[in-house]
Amino acid sequence: MAVHEEEEETKVDRLSDMPESLQLRILSCLDASHAVGTSVLSKSWGSLWTCVPILNFSSCEGFKHLHVFDDFVVNALSRRAPVKLDRLTFKRDGKCSAKLLQTVFDYAFLHGVRELEAHIEQTIGDHESWTWPIWSSDSLTSFKLRCNYVVGCPYLEPRSGSFKNLTTLHLQGVIIKDLDMFSGFQALDKLRLLHCFVKTNGKALHVHAQQLSEFTFFFRNQNVNCCEMMTPKLRYFEWGGNSLPRLKAHLPVLDTVVIAYNGHCLKEREKIMFDNLLMMFNTFYAAKSLTVSASTIHLLTLFPCSPPLWDLKCLKLDFSPRHMYIQSRLFLSETLKLVPGVKAYMLHKSHDAKCTIINDPNTESPCSNSQKSTTQSHG
Fold first, then answer.
1. pLDDT tens per residue across span 212-262
2. DSSP designation for 346
3. Rounded distance, CA 360 to CA 371, Å?
């Protein structure tokens, strides 16, 4: 036997001698297409990929045509052994058929998936009227659905106990018709809504989740006029976009607030946005850390008002362009001149608070003592 043949046999033996738990752990780190390819390594690895508890499907992993990727996903799911799923990730470019997405989700729920994540460009087919045979899952703890365009997700509705162990919910580009869709998720801890299409029809968006500790809502071109929250354990709140809603909530343990208002509203609506901002400030009485965008700073100076009564520990003024509809250098420069007045207003009762300017457009800012630091304590 040649030397190189002996070396190859030794390598194969080493693969076969690995504990199965280690083999499955290795396969779980691979994309599904690569995991299937390991079946040629040795006899013991021939069908091992069918038992991996983690499935990662990505159309970017060596697929020249999307229809080939779609066929691979369906075939891989049909050949997989009937074992529990810990996590399933599905990432697909281009237009994805609603039927394929439904097949992936149904399979995941039927096999006890704990973490389910999907990234798609958009769907084709009737994306608002899918029929889902699986309407509940006791195993699901994390669900993330990201779409660059609007996509329907009708099974995410307030059904008591339907997803009783769901703790993390991230939705991007999802159509939200039910304005009280989160009340059925009894264990929900983290909620993130990005560029979702919320059909309020002038009514209030309800966020009723007794265990919720983190809530992020960001959108570009849609007004949510009113938001009612029943979240007594909320500690982190972030709101971004072209509107500031009337916020109705009692947040006794709130710690961190981020207001990334981008200033994109009609002139006649500025007073409404201003009044809603003050209502938010009254709601955030327990907050210790507050971050506001440059457009929020500008809005605060348009009308006279009494300073808030909170006791902040940290104030951050964010001049990052991503938070602004108006991104001109002149706007930034003029807004920066407003910082001392806004700082005095915001820190009226917060004598020991620290003020920081994020992405300072000038070398030196009113919140800094030197060119190297933009943080100082105020006594």
1. 999 999 986 667 889 999 999 999 999 998 889 999 999 999 999 999 998
2. H
3. 10
Contact between 57 and 75 under an 8 Å Cβ cutoff? The reply is no
For 178, the token pair is 């039910």
Paired residues of 259 in beta bridges: 239, 292
Q: What pLDDT score does 85 carry? A: 93
For 27, the 3-state DSSP assignment is helix
H or E stretch at 98 = helix 98-110
Question: Residue 202: its pLDDT value, please?
Answer: 80
Whole-number percent of the chain with pLDDT over 70: 77
Q: Residue 369 is encoded by which pair of tokens?
A: 């003592």
Half-sphere exposure for 210 (CA within 13 Å, toward CB): 4
pTM of the model: 0.85
Longest Cα–Cα distance in the chain: 91
Question: Is residue 364 scored above 70 in pLDDT?
Answer: no
Strand (E) or helix (H) holding 8: helix 3-17
Which pLDDT band holds residue 129 (cuts at 50, 70, 90)?
very low
- Start-to-end Cα distance in the chain: 83
Q: Is the distance from CB of 287 to CB of 255 less than 8 angstroms?
A: yes
Tokens linked to 40: 């040629």
Tokens of 242: 């072209």
Q: How far apart are CA 297 and CA 273, in angstroms?
A: 12
- Tell me the mean pLDDT in the region 133-160: 74
Copy the structure tokens of residue 224. 């949510």
Residue 226 one-letter amino acid: C
CA 219 to CA 175: how far, in whole Å? 13
258: β partners: 238, 291
Report yes or no: 41 and 15 within 8 Å, Cβ to Cβ. Answer: yes
